[in-house]
Specification:
Blueprint: H1 2-15, H2 47-68, H3 85-126, E1 130-136, E2 143-149, E3 155-169, E4 175-187, E5 203-205, E6 209-211, E7 218-227, E8 237-248, E9 255-263, E10 269-271
Antiparallel strand pairs: 1-3, 2-3, 3-7, 4-5, 4-6, 4-8, 8-9, 9-10
Length: 282
């Protein structure tokens, strides 16, 4: 009897149809489906109800905006946090360190400047200084004129002067002279001597040589002249000028000494002092 009841119950369970799942987009049929109700007008309206609706709409709008852009977060700063004693101490220490650092930079710059000045002063005291002097060549005539003519062409006149160039080293180390230039110009009438000399002039001695420190002066005799001038020369000022370029121990670059003399009417040489760049050491 019991076995028969169990078999009957098993047959009922297996044979019963399983309920079908309702699709997500399909409504479940109900026996008593709600009928659409006509719109009802609110019987009572008040400002409080309107304000609640406005607040709810604003909240819904903000929620929709945040949902559309999840990377945007609404942050509202009510006030800055109060500064603690540690923050104040850190700020003061930062200001002090900035001032000290600036003062250190200024002090370092002044120290470097002072060291450079001392180094330059030491170099100037130890380097070679070549001085140049001019004088009339002993035993030779002073100012003389020469005339030349090519065939039946016109005569060419020029004026010359025999000059001795004396170079001496007034420094503490040796110097190597590499170039010596010299020329003569005439100034008179509307002509005027420029403030800076034109050093693109003839080379008088192309052979380099050394000058010892505080040693014996070196000299060389030259004949300098100017074409297109003839006697008489009254009212004209003759200027003999040039440059000596040399190298010293403390520099690989060439330095120079310029020199200039005027020829007086008594045929004596006098150093030109009205134009400082004509007598300058570098």
């Amino acid at each position: 009897m019991r076995i028969g009841l169990v078999v009957a119950a098993f047959v009922l369970l297996v044979g019963a149809p399983s309920p079908r799942p309702t699709p997500p987009n399909q409504k479940t049929p109900n026996a008593a489906e709600e009928q659409p109700q006509p719109n009802k007008q609110p019987t009572n309206s008040s400002p409080v109800r309107a304000q609640e609706n406005s607040t709810q709409n604003s909240a819904n709008h903000n929620s929709a905006s945040l949902t559309a852009n999840p990377n945007v977060q609404a942050v509202r700063v009510m006030s800055l946090p109060p500064r603690s004693a540690g923050d104040t101490v850190a700020l003061v220490c930062t200001i002090i360190l900035t001032i000290v650092g600036g003062a250190g930079i200024i002090a370092a710059f002044r120290t470097i400047t002072a060291i450079k000045k001392q180094s330059d002063a030491m170099v100037k005291s130890e380097r070679a200084w070549v001085m140049v002097d001019l004088e009339k060549t002993p035993g030779m005539g002073s100012l003389f004129e020469s005339t030349s003519q090519s065939g039946n062409g016109p005569e060419h006149h020029s004026v010359h002067f025999n000059v001795r160039c004396i170079c001496s080293n007034q420094g503490q180390t040796a110097a190597r002279i590499v170039e010596k230039r010299c020329a003569m110009v005439v100034v008179g009438g509307d002509d005027e001597l420029p403030d800076s000399p034109n050093l693109a002039i003839d080379i008088q001695d192309p052979v380099p040589h050394y000058l010892k420190a505080n040693g014996e002066p070196w000299h060389d005799d030259w004949t300098v002249g100017i074409e297109g001038v003839k006697f008489p020369t009254e009212g004209k000022l003759f200027v003999i000028y040039g440059v000596v370029r040399y190298v010293h121990l403390f520099s690989d670059q060439t330095v120079q000494t310029t020199f200039a003399y005027t020829l007086r009417f008594d045929r004596k040489l006098e150093r030109l002092i009205s134009k400082p760049k004509y007598n300058q050491n570098s």
